[in-house]
Structure formats: C-alpha cells, structure tokens
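Q: Predict the bound structure with EPU.
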Amino acid sequence: MERFRVVGGASLHGEVTVVGAKNSALKLMAAALLASGRTRLTNMPAILDVTIMAELLRRLGCEVDYEADAGVVEIDVPQVIGHRADYDLVRALRASISVLGPLVARCGEADVAVPGGDAIGSRGLDLHAAGLEALGATVHVTHGYLIAEAPNGLHGGEIRLDFPSVGATENVLMAAVLARGTTVLTNAAREPEIVDIAAMLTGMGARIRGAGTSVIEIEGVTELAPTQHAVVADRIAAGTWAFAAATTRGDVEVVGGVADHLGIALDHLSGAGATVTTTDRGFRVSTGGARLRAFDVATLPYPGFPTDLQPFALAYNAVADGSAMITENLFEARFRTVQELARLGAEARVDGHHVMLHGVEQLSGAPVEASDIRAGAALVIAGLVAEGVTTVSGAHHIDRGYAGFAAAMQGLGADVTREPDDAPYL
Ligand code: EPU
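A: Predicted complex:
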C-alpha cells in the first residue's frame, strides 16, 4: 500500500498532457465484443482498470494485447464468445457491467455479476435492465448475477430513460446496434463518451443518429466489423488540471484537453477570475498568481457540472475568496472528501446533499485518506495549498484514473512523491 506525500505551498506552472478517457476506453473495449476479428484502440490510458477489463475479455475467449506505454489495446474477438462476467472482476471494476449489452446482443445471453455498493453511493442497474427488456430481453437476478436472455435475438424498441444514466445509455446503445429494427432512446445521456462509443460503433458499421443529444435513434444491422478507433480525451482528467491550476494560483496548459467538453466548469473558473484560453494543443488556465473567488456548484448530467469534478470544486472553494455551496445531485454518498478537507483545516459543513464552505487563506498539512479516484486527486491538490506536509493514503485509488500522477505534478513544479503507507509521517 502506498500514499502520496505532498509538500504544501506549491503553485502549478507549465504543461501537462491528457490522454484518452478511462470512462470511454473501458466501454470501447466492451463494444469490441460486438464484432469478431481484431479491433485496435489507441490513445488508451495506462491504468489498472484497462488491465482488469482486458482480463475480463480474455475470460470471454478474446485475445487481448495491452501496450500501456504506447496507449494501444488490440482485441481479437473469436466467432463464439463466452457470456459470463464473474464477480471477482466485476467487483474490482464496476464498469464491467458495460459488457451486458454487447453480450446479450452477440450471444443471446449475458450473465454479469451484480456489482456491490461502492464508495460513492448505491448505484442501481434498474435502468440498464428496463432498457434491455424494451429490446425484448428477459432480465432477472439469480445468485448474485444479472441474467439477460434473448434466445431469439433482440428487436428494436422505444425506450425513455427515467434518468439520463451514462451506463444505461451505453448498454442500450451497444445492444440495439444488433437488434432487428429501429430503437429510439429518449432522455439519453449526452456525455462526450457516448458520442465516442457511437463513433466507434458507426466505424464498425452501426447506424446511429443523435448521439450527443437526448434522443438517439439506432437502426439495427445484422453484423458489425472490427475497427480502429482513438479514445476521446479525458475531460475529467483535463478538468482536474484546470482546477489544480486555479486552486494553486498557477498557470497550466492542458495539452490534449478539449475545452468544449468542460463548458460549465471552465465558465465557472473564468467567472471567478481565471483566464481560460483555448490553445493549438488544448486549453490553458492562468490566474496571474491571484486568489480566485468562491463559486457555487450543482452537479448535473452533461452538459451540467460533472459529479466527477465535484471533489475538485470542494478543494478549490476551501481556499477561494468567499463562501460557496456545493450541491451533489447524482450520487448520495459523494461527500467523503469533506471530512478529509476538514482535517486539513477547511471550513466546511455537510447538510444533506449540500456542502457549505467558507474559504480560508491556507490549509494546514495532515495525513488524509482517499476514498475514491477523484476524492484522492482532489486531496493531493488540497495538500498543495496546505502549510507543511500532507499525506494522502490510498494511492491505488488515484492510480485508477490518473497514470503517473506524481510525475505530472512534479512536471508542474510540485513536490509530490509516493511512499509506503506505513512510512513515518514527517
Ligand atoms: N442509476 C440508477 N439506475 C441505473 C443506473 C443509474 O438509479 O440503472 C443512478 C445512479 O445510482 C446514479 C445516477 O443514476 O445516482 C448516475 O448514474 P450513471 O449511470 O449515469 O453513472 P455510471 O454510468 O454508473 C459513469 C462514470 C462515473 C460518473 C457517472 C456520472 C463510468 C465507468 N463511470 O458512471 O465515473 O461519475 O457516469 O457521470 O463511466 C469516475 O470516473 O470516478 C466515476 C465514478
């Protein structure tokens, strides 16, 4: 077990590069199951989750080569594939649920272990199930497995999601591409990752209209072909660096970042006094060394403020000028960062799904603990604006979303290193 050791008093300056989005890459790997043959994915992040997904695909009978340093995954899918995703893998990687749609479409059956609760709230699968049922599958849970069956194949259907769930939209999309007839999915998620999957599926021969809007129309085809596809840039990693620059009164160019995918978040930062510009290679957030103003945030599905950036908004407002209210509308238990920020001296109070913060000039270094990827990265950033040393335990959480996080921080001038979790706190 390792932790990050963060020396406070840093201001981040320079450039940092973002690669493909974790939350797209994993789904694209699942989408590869829809065609036999060799699919090649590039701009893949070098993270453990990709290794776990590769193992899951291998157990289904695929050959998978993952060159993490080159950012390339090649998946060779046989004609006949397995249809069971075991609990040990699903438990380690909740995104494994995204094989559900492709497997039922390809095999007429999918048995996917139901993931347990995780650190950011209970996240149901009812919308995934309802979507597949509308396409003609029967879905039930037995012995901890969600079993979807469509022995005679899927058919097109009209589906209106109660909530624009990212995962349910993806599963319906990946099932409907091989269904007989046309599917209309209303109140679909609009995230750039949905557009990315639709682009890859289109490259495989699928017929999809409206991805990126709330109505997606899918005309089923009988067969898809393998393809090559470059993963869309990670907007959450890009947003992490934008907040890191703003929180530390720095100046950072996010190479590979797409400002358009971070509209509301970047608008907030420029409204608070930062200068945000698009550059040839990405975008840049500069503060001129000034302490920025506090701002309120309410998380919403895309294009709203992303829940995955909410912990960064907490860290930012902990040291911003003024008071702010942060409202979490997507996940009920996503405020674990608050207690840890309080250990660092933040003036923050949780009230239901709101947090009230009053910015202080500087935090005060202490040992804290990461509860998930984003909380962990946000605590490292908070450590940069704390006096003295902060240690963030649970480095493995951060590694799931950010390859080489400490090295990237060092490249921006911060003193962030890794050390064993039981090293003395100095
Ligand atoms: N929900 C249901 N029933 C369902 C599906 C979702 O009630 O059948 C609820 C969830 O409980 C939650 C809300 O709907 O309250 C949003 O869930 P959604 O399905 O949109 O999220 P997800 O697909 O499970 C992805 C990302 C998350 C990100 C959310 C929201 C992946 C692997 N995960 O999760 O990313 O927070 O969308 O944008 O794509 C992360 O990267 O750290 C992360 C947690």
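A: The pocket of EPU is lined by residues 23, 95, 120, 123-128, 163, 165-168, 306-308, 330-331, 373-374 (CB under 6 Å).
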